[in-house]
Amino acid sequence: MSNIKLSMIVACYNEDSHLSNNLSRLKQVLDKLVYEYEIIILDDASRNSTVEIIESFLQANQRADNIKFIKHEKNKGRGGTVSEGILAASGEIAGFIDIDFSTSPWYIPALVAEIENGADVVIGQRIYKLKLKVLHRWILSQGYKLLVKLFLSRDLGDTESGCKFFRREKIIPILAQVKDEKWFWDTEIIGRSYAAGLEIRQLPT
């Protein structure tokens, strides 16, 4: 496992409606990459069949030694769960993607390439075609971005994107500073990365 280059973190909480298909799809994408990888799946005390689906996925891939599973007895929160995954990672690059695939996993190679080309943090920037069914997402995304810019006096980009990749050695010291373990974690880690002078890039998705 010492030659792992990419650690892919999957934080789960009540994901049973799409988890089985999307875990398989994620592995299919990663299997096509030209470098070594690991998948770290974390369940944050789900209340439905999420754990059973994860265990079925592990059973189907029991010969693979690059899949880890961490199960919480108590809910920690999205940010704390992703942080735990980064700390448990072995790769030079650690990334996470929301398992509902609001960002397609096919963007993973391009996101990794940005890290290889000098970025410390890469955000999968959400670009919405303005259709009625996603209009509320666009309004919420733009509204939150405006609030961040207003209160922090910085345009930090799409901080709430559920798809981010990090140069692990650079983000570990930032994780030690982050205080929020819930949904504000995304904004805080990008804000602190900016303050620390890390190279942050966005990749439109």
How many β-strand stretches? 7
Task: Name the helix and strand elements from N-terminus to C-terminus, one letter apiece.
Answer: EHEHEHEHEHEHHE
The coarse silhouette is globular
Distance between the termini: 31 Å
How are strands sequenced across the largest beta sheet? 3-2-1-4-6-5-7
The class by helix and strand makeup works out as alpha/beta
Number of helices: 7
Please describe the biggest sheet, giving its number of strands, its sense, and whether it closes into a barrel: 7 strands, mixed
Helix residue percentage: 25-40%
- What is the beta-strand fraction? 15-25%
Output mean pLDDT.
Answer: 91
How does this structure look, described?
The structure is a single chain. With 205 residues, the chain is an alpha/beta fold. Helix content is 40%, strand content 19%. It contains seven helices and seven strands, in the order βαβαβαβαβαβααβ. The protein has helices spanning 19-31, 50-60, 78-88, 108-116, 135-152, 168-175, 185-195; strands at 6-12, 37-43, 67-71, 93-97, 121-125, 163-167, 200-204. It has a seven-stranded mixed sheet with strand order 3-2-1-4-6-5-7, with helices on both faces. β2, α2 and β3 form a beta-alpha-beta unit. α1 (19-31) runs parallel beside α2. The chain starts with 5 loop residues before the first strand and ends with a strand. The mean pLDDT is 91.
